[in-house]
Amino acid sequence: MTLLGLTYILVGMLVAHKNGKRKVSRFRDAERTRERLVQAAAREIYRAGFQSASLETILAATGVTKGALYYHFDSKEALGYAVVDEVIGPDVRLAWVRPLLTDKDPIDALIGAVRNIPVQPVIVRGGCALNNLAQEMSPLHAGFRKRLETAFNAWREAVASILRRGQAEGSVRRDVKPDDAAGLLIAMVEGYGSLAKNAQDPKVMKAGIRNIVGWLESLRSLHSLPSRGNHKRG
Amino acid sequence: MTLLGLTYILVGMLVAHKNGKRKVSRFRDAERTRERLVQAAAREIYRAGFQSASLETILAATGVTKGALYYHFDSKEALGYAVVDEVIGPDVRLAWVRPLLTDKDPIDALIGAVRNIPVQPVIVRGGCALNNLAQEMSPLHAGFRKRLETAFNAWREAVASILRRGQAEGSVRRDVKPDDAAGLLIAMVEGYGSLAKNAQDPKVMKAGIRNIVGWLESLRSLHSLPSRGNHKRG
User: Fold this and answer.
1) Are A190 and A138 in contact (CB under 8 A)?
2) Measured distance CA(B208)–CA(B214) in Å, rounded
3) pLDDT band at A218 (very low <50, low <70, confident <90, very high)
4) pLDDT, tens digit, for every residue of B87-128?
5) According to the model, what pLDDT value does residue B188 have?
6) Average pLDDT score over chain A
7) In A, which residues are within 8 Å of B132 by CB distance?
């Protein structure tokens, strides 16, 4: 639902006439089918990994025929790429890029993003969709590896960028290296995600969030005055 | 090569006679076959994950028949358990438990263990065997999950325990919570391992090691006098 989705809306507004209408509606149906396939594939890949993901399960979940699947996607790989580009990548940007495009205090903004890491049992047990796929596919498949790296890079750049602003404004310690600290934050988040997934226990992730928040507090410059109410360590 | 290996040595010393000899040698051959299967399975699981690991590949690598495989292991799962119990678990203890059973300064010992994290391209690209299997199998299979958790717990307890000694001796900050810090260390190591595996680039792991060492330095109590030569941050 990126450019194609936008195209549909424009076309829908401009040519909602007789013959046009049928074409548009067929186009819309095709788009909906494609979107349903991508969402079902995202769920199945999240459950079983890409290699073990079953096209039969995806077809059964959507009620789509194999013919229709191959109309939209040349291969299982193309469907997997769509999951990265249209589900996992946007989810990373929603959780880690957009919330950091803010005027708030950088450390407060980062703590807010960390506190928003989902800790629902079903998500803790399934792990991070980005990390799952990166762990499975990076050594096996350059196409997946690069797409997933793009998402990690966007995440790291968003964190490094807000830390640079904090240094320019004086709220973040000058000895912090923004790129290194951004990498460390992501390593902590994904590392705790791994431990919590192994433990199958949200408490592990909650403890991780507290520890990451504690580390983020340590990046404040000493003369910056944190708004104490917002970031207790307990 | 744990209890069974020991049994063989004792038996070998005591009954190296005529008939006994043939029995012992058959027993030894069986043990060697079993060991070769476990090592080949460890390599294949490391390459492809447990679910995608191919018994045919393992048999071809060892020259063992399917019958002999099932003589030693009831199932692919039993072979996988042996990989965790006899390869992955011992490797974790070798890298993270044994080096911390030392009289050295606790932070120096931890920094030493972190600096020993392998950064050879083939290992960085394949990732951490413990984390790979935990990520793949924890949500799917309680037997694997628990065995892998045992290895993570031994690692965490070894780190927490040496930090507690450091606090008792005054070399580690009193406000550090040993269990939390141990979890954070493991999260950092595994998280950087994930990022480096995604990047397929040892430089990412080397940068990670530098950052983890920097964090470990920050756990020293202010009045402890580090032996500067041993832990430059560069």
Assistant:
1) no
2) 10
3) very high
4) 999 999 999 999 999 999 999 999 999 999 999 999 999 999
5) 98
6) 89
7) 135
Residue contact B200–A139, C-beta within 8 A: yes
Looking at chain A, how many residues does it have?
A: 234
pLDDT band at B20 (very low <50, low <70, confident <90, very high): low
**Distance from B69 to chain A by nearest Cα, in Å?**
25
- The rounded Cα B101 to chain-centroid distance in angstroms is 16
Regarding an ipTM greater than 0.90, the answer is: no
Q: What's the CA gap between B17 and B79, in Å, rounded?
A: 33
Please answer yes or no on whether A198 and B134 come within 8 Å at the CB atom.
Answer: yes
- Domains of chain A and CATH, by start: 1-74 (no CATH), 75-234 (1.10.357.10)
- Whether A152 and B52 lie within 8 Å, measured CB to CB: no
Tokens at B62, concatenated: 């060892």
**DSSP helix, strand, coil percent of chain A (3-state; round to 5):** 75, 0, 25
pTM (2 decimals)? 0.85
Rounded mean pLDDT, A157-174? 98
pLDDT, tens digit, 9 for 90 and up, residues B126-139? 999 999 999 999 99
Can you tell me which residue has the tokens 């580390």?
A: A215
How many interface pairs between A and B have CB atoms less than 8 angstroms apart? Answer: 134
Alpha-carbon distances of B50 from A4, B41, B146, B177, rounded to whole Å = 38, 9, 15, 36
Helix ranges (H only) for A93-177 are 106-115, 121-126, 129-137, 142-169
Q: How close is the nearest chain B Cα to the Cα of A33, in Å? A: 29
Rg of chain B, C-alpha, whole Å: 21
Q: What is the mean pLDDT of chain B?
A: 89
What helix, strand, coil percent values describe chain B, rounded to 5? 75, 0, 25
Contacts of B196 (CB under 8 A, 6+ apart): B124, B202, B204, B205, B208
| Integer CA distances (angstroms), B114 to B185, B190, B202, B231, in order | 9, 11, 15, 11
- Write the single-letter amino acid at B85: D
